[in-house]
Design goal:
MmgE/PrpD_sf_1; MmgE/PrpD family protein; MmgE_PrpD_N; MmgE/PrpD_sf
Length: about 450
């Protein structure tokens, strides 16, 4: 794959890395992290299916095929399964993410990789290797363009889903380095998504699903012999999606340093920007024994990027997922901010609306200084008794500095998927966590087709 400049093209560098990402070659911690993220993604998808957020696409994309539509009786062909499962995994914003990319790699690539693994009757170790390679491409390209890409109006997850999915698919297709490079290069044209679209969670996940499908198609096309432009990342992708880029982070330590441990996991629903404020408010309430009735007013300060996604006065459940005030209110009133709380009915509850009216969210440009290494929040409360209380966090819980444990994620799966899969939930969890030793991923695929009990 020759370069127009004489320097090794980034697509070629990534292609060589992807070609070497094979089962049995991953560090043990990367294998464990990838396995855990499959279970976490299944939990995120279950929360979407329970809210019926899969139904529109399921009706729009009829047919049959080998891949299960998770948590439903339906099966679809490779591309449709990738779109639907990706979109529903992203639909409640309950999946993992990375503050250094502003994106969510799991929903962007795991559903497509899983569907392709099922079609090829691959073993779990091969799927884990594919996921690890896809994550690395997602995280490295994401670091190169973030936060500039968001400030230009793009959604990182959708932009990165295509090349990341192409990388994962290339592993499962066992493409050699040159073919894998072409797959990634072709996919760079197939990721599309706007940050503004995030404010409608009913339709926005489709841009992630379609971009993931584009990456899958790119890898299959490259496997047939199609070629991409060698310098498309440097001369096209970077220029299109960011005003300021860092090309060095794409290749620095590639194959030696893995980024998956730098992603975060979630225990709250809604946009990640809500989570530091929710955690800070909950910690303050716990520390001082506050009840919602004690709060006269709450002032929440966040960084500029977080405020850009904020919906101050949500009118429906979709908008509530981007409302810091709503997220804090349900956490303090209900005890959790799980995706099941983000409904029109809960938003309409008088207690929720009344507490929201006492919460003000505003920007604090001082918080921009550490972004994205720190994405924190400052919460100040004035009580009816006249107390002035404050709590600040540099980062939400679940970040690498304060990670959730395997037991936490298993509990998250139990809470979201238990009601959906019934008696099968335990078996699904056990198979997902034993993925590296699973001879054929279709054993898990078949269980995920279970009808709700």
């Amino acid at each position: 794959m020759p370069s127009q400049t004489g320097a090794p093209p980034l697509a070629a560098c990534l292609g060589r890395f992807v070609a070497g990402a094979r089962a049995g070659r991953l560090p043990a911690d990367v294998t464990q992290a990838a396995t855990l993220r499959v279970l976490d993604t299944l939990a995120a998808a279950a929360s979407g299916v329970q809210q019926g957020l899969h139904q529109g696409l399921l009706a729009l994309l009829p047919g049959d095929g080998p891949a299960s539509i998770w948590g439903t009786p339906a099966r679809r062909g490779l591309r449709d399964a990738a779109i639907i499962n990706s979109a529903v995994s992203h639909s409640t914003y309950f999946e993992d993410g990375c503050r250094f990319t502003g994106g969510h790699p799991s929903s962007a690539l795991i559903p497509a990789a899983f569907a392709l693994a099922c079609e090829r009757r691959a073993g779990g170790a091969d799927l884990v290797a594919a996921i690890a390679a896809g994550y690395e491409v997602f995280l490295r390209l994401g670091r190169a363009i973030y936060p500039s890409t968001v400030r230009r109006g793009f959604q990182s997850t959708a932009i990165l889903a295509a090349p990341a999915t192409a990388a994962a698919a290339a592993v499962l297709l066992r493409l050699p380095a040159e073919r894998a490079a072409h797959a990634i290069a072709i996919a760079c044209s197939h990721g599309a998504g706007l940050k503004e679209a995030l404010k409608n969670a009913g339709s926005q996940p489709l841009q992630v699903g379609r971009s993931s499908e584009g990456g899958l198609l790119s890898a299959l096309y490259a496997a047939q012999g199609a070629e991409g432009v060698p310098d498309v990342i440097e001369r096209g992708f970077f220029k299109a999606f960011a005003a300021h880029t860092r090309a060095d982070v794409v290749t620095h330590g590639l194959g030696r340093q893995w980024g998956m441990a730098r992603t975060y996991l979630k225990m709250h629903g809604g946009c990640r920007g809500n989570h530091a404020p929710v955690d800070a408010a909950a910690a303050l309430a716990h520390e001082h024994g506050l009840t919602p009735r004690d709060i006269a007013s709450m002032d929440v300060r966040v960084d500029t990027v977080t405020l850009a996604a904020e919906v101050a006065r949500p009118t429906n459940a979709d908008q509530a997922r981007f409302s810091i005030a709503f997220s804090i209110a349900v956490k303090l009133l209900k005890g959790d901010a799980m995706p099941a709380r983000y409904t029109d009915a809960v938003l309409a509850e008088p207690q929720v609306r009344e507490l929201m009216s006492r919460i003000r969210v505003r920007v604090d440009t001082a918080l921009d200084e550490g972004y994205p290494d720190r994405r924190g929040a400052v919460v100040n409360v004035r009580t009816h008794s006249g107390q002035e209380l404050a709590h600040a966090l540099d980062r939400a819980l679940g970040e690498p500095e304060q990670p959730f444990t395997q037991a936490d994620i298993e509990r998250k799966f139990d809470l979201t998927a238990g009601a959906l899969y019934g008696a099968q939930a335990g078996r699904i969890k056990a198979l997902a966590m034993s993925l590296p030793s699973l001879p054929d991923v279709n054993a898990l695929n078949d269980l995920l087709q279970a009808t709700p009990s």
